[in-house]
Write a structure and sequence with these properties.
This protein is mainly alpha-helical. It is 81% helix and 0% strand. The chain has one domain. Helix 1 (8-112) packs antiparallel against helix 3.
């Protein structure tokens, strides 16, 4: 049969074309709506990430500044410690020299009779009659006592110098630790 209806053969084709066009429109519009929706989400996420990065950068900068301040404090404390130790060492050497000088001065004063030993330090050596020793043994014994007394005084002065040196070294270390901010409590 011959159909004389000119649009009838194309009606199915037009119907399928409209369905396809509607599907394409739905897909395109949904993509555009999804893209604009996700674009807003992306912009919010990017802004949040930028804010977090700025906060992290500020924290890192604060830490770097604090580290530089602590390093400066530690360097200053180290410099003060080195100066204090050098001063302590020079005081120690001076005290040792003073102890040696006091030893020689005391021995000379004892020999010249300017200073006398207390009775508990002046033991007299036995004379020639009891032990058969020469007559100048008393003088040798006195010189020995004088030198011994001078050495004892010098040793006591040297010990005091060592104690002062150790104390000043400990004090300088403690002050440096407190000045550098490393001490748990800095109450004195």
């Amino acid at each position: 049969m011959i159909s004389f209806d000119p649009l009838r053969p194309y009606a199915d084709l037009i119907r399928w074309a409209l369905i396809a066009l509607l599907a394409v429109l739905l897909v395109v519009l949904s993509y555009r709506w999804g893209a604009s929706h996700w674009k807003g989400e992306y912009a919010a996420e990017a802004a949040g990430r930028a804010a977090d990065n700025a906060a992290h950068a500020a924290t890192i900068q604060r830490l770097a500044d604090a580290s530089a301040a602590v390093a400066a404090k530690a360097k200053a404390a180290s410099t003060v410690l080195a100066q204090s130790r050098a001063e302590s060492d020079s005081n120690y050497q001076k005290a040792l020299n003073d102890a040696k000088r006091a030893e020689h001065d005391l021995a000379a004063a004892l020999r010249h009779g300017d200073v006398q030993l207390q009775p508990q330090w002046s033991c007299i050596a036995p004379g020639a009659g009891t032990g058969g020793v020469a007559a100048d043994a008393v003088q040798a014994s006195a010189a020995g006592r004088f030198n011994s007394a001078a050495r004892i005084v010098a040793a006591a002065d040297a010990d005091a110098a060592v104690i002062d040196w150790l104390w000043s070294g400990w004090k300088a270390d403690r002050d440096a630790v407190i000045a550098a901010g490393c001490a748990v409590e800095s109450a004195r």
